[in-house]
Automatic annotation (TrEMBL):
Gene designation: rfbD
Lineage: Bacteria, Pseudomonadati, Nitrospirota, Nitrospiria, Nitrospirales
Alphabetically ordered keywords of this record: NADP, Oxidoreductase
Associated pathway: Carbohydrate biosynthesis; dTDP-L-rhamnose biosynthesis
Organism (species): Nitrospira defluvii
InterPro entries per the UniProt record, alphabetical: dTDP_dehydrorham_reduct, NAD(P)-bd_dom_sf, RmlD-like-bd
Protein name in the entry: dTDP-4-dehydrorhamnose reductase
């Protein structure tokens, strides 16, 4: 299959490249491919793909709060350009979106049809990306995922491991709940979804949920370091961008399609086992 991947050098993009290596891949990312450039769709049209997996995005949540125009330019306008290009060549578009499209006031797992109401500029720009993808390309699947961490790239797990090696004690918020997701598992599921014609919005995360504090506690436990992890509140850790207090995504639709994802604990264990080999290869 001819597949274009945007954000191909990113955390998820790197895993997608590995999972999809049997396909004819066109890999796009900064600096040669810039979503904020008006003509960025041209290279997609020229590749005449059957599928475009649009993982490229401005993902700095606090940075987006400081510069919302840049987040909109990449995540909303850029996504529209990608979607128009996909539509022009009759390709299917798989757009990767986020749990941060929800405001977090929910009390049960969010289903795909629940109303969105982002509380951050990043979430706002990704929601606009979803809307434009669905409007500009008829054959679109929006894959909403959450709390991604992978072997390649910066993420919460690596930050916690780093802090645990430097500090006597960690402080982590215990009033935000979501679904940590290993990007290798997400890439694998996207590979399976290529053979399925699902459209619309689909939630894909590792199974189960936890708070950032519970997640950090498990990361530290698996690391074998005896570092205490103190539970704090969001108010104790002011950040430029608001995060949803509850952004657990329901797996019901995924299950109805016949798929399941491993638990977040299982994903984290496999990540931790694989990390030393990757770290020593890059250092
Ligand atoms: N990380 C997470 O926790 C979650 C991510 N998502 C979504 O999943 C997708 C993949 O995320 P992830 O792999 O973690 O993110 P990364 O930031 O690792 O990868 C995104 C890639 O997009 C590139 N990019 C940024 N701006 C532009 C631009 N203007 N033009 C072209 N490319 C650009 C980045 O380049 P550079 O590094 O040089 O900026 C990077 O290579 C994104 O759409 C994100 O919104 C959804 C839920 C959770
Ligand atoms: C590192 C650290 C973070 N935190 C808190 C801050 C914040 O509320 C929460 C998560 O922190 P981060 O900034 O690492 O994560 P954040 O950038 O909010 O992660 C989000 O990224 C985007 C791209 C998404 O799409 C989301 O699904 C989500 O994964 O943990 C602590 O309490 N203590 C700490 O030591």
């Amino acid at each position: 299959m001819r597949i274009v991947i945007t954000g191909a050098q990113g955390q998820l993009g790197t895993d997608l490249r590995q999972v999809l290596q049997g396909h004819q891949l066109t890999l796009l990312d900064l600096p040669t491919f810039d979503l904020t450039h008006q003509d960025c769709g041209r290279v997609i049209v020229e590749a005449v793909p059957e599928v475009v997996i649009h993982a490229g995005a401005h993902t700095d949540v606090d940075g987006a709060e400081r510069n919302p125009a840049l987040a909109m330019a990449a995540n909303a306008e850029g996504t529209e350009r990608v979607a128009r290009a996909a539509a022009l060549v009759g390709a299917r578009l798989i757009y990767i979106s986020t749990d941060y499209v929800f405001d977090g006031r929910g009390t049960r797992p969010y289903v795909e049809t629940d109303p969105t109401n982002p509380v951050s500029a990043y979430g706002e720009s990704k929601r606009a990306g979803e809307q434009r993808a669905l409007a500009c390309c008829e054959n679109t699947l929006v894959v909403r995922t959450a709390w991604l961490y992978g072997l390649h790239g910066r993420n919460f797990v690596k930050t916690i491991l780093q802090l645990a090696s430097e500090r006597p004690c960690l402080k982590v918020v215990a009033d935000q709940r979501g679904c940590p997701t290993f990007s290798g598992d997400l890439a694998g599921m996207i590979g399976k979804l290529l053979a399925h014609s699902a459209r619309g919005v689909l939630h894909v995360t590792n199974a189960g949920d936890c708070t950032w504090h519970e997640f950090a506690t498990e990361i530290v436990r698996l690391s074998g370091r005896p570092v205490p992890v103190e539970a704090i509140t969001t108010a104790d850790m002011p950040r430029p961008a608001k995060r949803p207090a509850y952004s657990v995504l329901s797996a019901d639709r995924l299950h109805h399609l016949g798929f399941t994802m491993p638990s977040w604990q299982d994903g984290l264990q496999r990540f931790m086992k694989a990390l030393p080999a990757v770290s020593s290869a890059v250092s």
